[in-house]
Amino acid sequence: MRKITLPFVALATLIAAGPVLAQEAKPLAGQSITVLMPSPQGATVAADFEAETGIHVDLQTLSWDDIRPKLVTALVAGTAPADVTEFDWSWTGQFSAADWYMPLNDVIDADTVNDIAVAKIFSVDGKLLGVPYTNDFRVMLVNKKHFEDAGVAEMPKTLDDLVAAAKKIKAKGVSEYPIGLPLSATEGASTSWYLLTKAFGGELFDKDFNPLFTTPDSAGHKALSFELMLLKEGLVDPASTGLKDSQINDAMFSQGLTSIMVSGEPGRLTQMNDPKQSKIAGQAEAILVPTESGKTRSFGLPEALAIPRVSQNKEAAVAFVKWFTSRDFQKKNAVNGILPTRTSALAELNQAGKLQSGNTIVEQSKTVDALFPQGTPTWYPQFSSAVNTAINSAAKGQITVDQAMQNIAEAAKQAAAQ
Question: What's the pTM?
Answer without folding.
Answer: 0.77
